[in-house]
TrEMBL record, chains A, B:
GO terms for molecular function: orotidine-5'-phosphate decarboxylase activity. The keyword Lyase applies. Keywords: Decarboxylase, Lyase, Pyrimidine biosynthesis. This is Orotidine 5'-phosphate decarboxylase. The keyword Lyase applies. The lineage of its organism: Bacteria, Pseudomonadati, Bacteroidota, Flavobacteriia, Flavobacteriales. One of its GO terms (biological process) is 'de novo' UMP biosynthetic process. It holds the Pfam family OMPdecase. It is an enzyme of class 4 (lyase). Belongs to the OMP decarboxylase family. Type 2 subfamily. Its EC number is 4.1.1.23. It catalyses: orotidine 5'-phosphate + H(+) = UMP + CO2. SMART domains: OMPdecase.
């Protein structure tokens, strides 16, 4: 998917909501456990119910790997379902990969070509040649961990390299990498005060913002400091949406939660347009 | 496996060789492609042929994920074979994972409990709470990316935080994490001159050293600066061993290459004991 398509979907749907599909068998409605593939059944229902409010879905691969081969089958079915049924939806493999060149190429092939994701999250620690293999794929996007939303973000990311924080250095340096137009960045919503700083360095890049909702970030703050004229934001919510209910109505409940966020987004988008 | 077991195996085998199982179907002997599971057949033969010279095996998960579900099955069969046939061998899932707390727990469970690896490689960028879930597993080991062997290592890892390089900061900070006794570190062999610096900070930790052989590192240099009285080194070679031949004799050829390194190791170990 091109960046233009994504922007146009956001404008059309008046939403930049990304739904995180972090599926835990202990958290999904118990009656689904009788299904042949409970994870896929859950995802399908959640997707069908929330897709009108969301422009992106983000399965975190850890939750699928935790179930071994069965989990990978569920992941494969989920991405296939998204690509076939809602080709206009942007898909993110939240895999946080990154390795030496030829190995990163393997990951890139697995997520972009074989599974058919539009984007993948990548850790920058190993530098340029660990990220560029991902960037080489046309109309595929690499979402670089820059400033994450967890406590540990303060361990290294906000430390200063010479005069600037490591995450700013990551932002600046990565802009010069080959095919940098395919880069997006993860910026934790719980650090809205940093967003203005981020925008000084990457004014037009898409930012994937986790941590609104359950992790306590404010959508208004995120938009105030992170939004551009083309929006260039994807705001993710996982648990707050997909685990809204454990009953028969779980999908409607998820839709309800998604709608609440989307309505808030619409109000903001209407305000700037 | 406990650290003591690993050290005792190293002393017994007079080897601290780790064989990287980065299996590429285009690189394995073509006659194996007729087998039901060419990757597993290849790994089994390589393991059987080289195990007397090696104390550890390290499949890089990217190479398995690249083949989707089939690849995961091959990985599962490989680790099961290792655990059942050579329980004294140390196993490393070279997965370079790392995510927020509850997600890292998933990865830890997948690699330590479900697959049964002794250790996993983890990227430190997200800090303490992204690594500690791995550390919580008893007699399991977390190998933290500190100073990697690729070009991109100079992008961030060798940059200075205040007065010290990022990788040193990673070493120092990570020592204070809960269950830090389960930490090992990746230190690229192509940077032997840094090893002395590393040892000042982590004198007793195991270092996983990639890059000897194909990537040009020198075993002697690595030992000179990185070895301790308990050795505390694992030196990895992947391509140099497993792709020694594409013919019927590929396993013997791999054994031959492994032996060359092991003989060099033995000479060094005999010299210090």
């Amino acid at each position: 998917m091109t960046t233009e398509n994504l922007i146009s979907e956001i404008k059309k749907k008046k939403s930049f909501l990304c739904v995180g599909l972090d599926v835990d068998l202990e958290k999904i409605p118990s009656f689904l456990l009788e299904e042949e593939d409970p994870i896929f059944s859950f995802n399908k229902a959640i997707i069908d119910a929330t897709q009108q409010y969301a422009v992106a879905y983000k399965p975190n691969t850890a939750f699928y790997e935790a179930y071994g081969i069965k989990g990978w089958k569920s992941l494969e079915k989920t991405i296939n379902y998204l690509n076939q049924t809602y080709p206009e939806i942007f898909t993110i493999a939240d895999a946080k990969r990154g390795d030496i060149g030829n190995t990163s190429s393997r990951y890139a092939k697995a997520f972009f070509e074989d599974l058919g994701f539009d984007s993948v999250t990548v850790a920058p620690y190993m530098g340029k040649d660990s990220v560029e293999p991902f960037l080489a794929f046309e109309n595929k996007h690499t979402i670089l961990l820059a400033l994450t939303s967890n406590e540990g973000a303060y361990d290294f990311q906000t430390k200063k390299i010479a005069k600037e924080e490591v995450y700013k250095h990551v932002l600046k340096i990565s802009k010069s990498w080959k095919n940098a137009q395919n880069l997006m960045y993860v910026i934790g919503a719980t650090k809205a005060e940093y967003l203005a700083e981020v925008r000084k360095i990457v004014p037009d890049s898409f930012l994937l913002v986790p941590g609104v909702g359950a992790q306590g970030g404010s959508l208004k703050e995120v938009c105030k400091y992170g939004m551009t004229k083309d929006i260039n934001l994807l705001v993710n919510s996982s648990r707050g949406i997909i685990y809204a209910s454990k009953e028969q109505d779980f999908a409607e409940a998820a839709a309800g939660e998604a709608k609440i966020i989307q309505v808030e987004m619409k109000a903001i988008l209407d305000g700037i347009s």
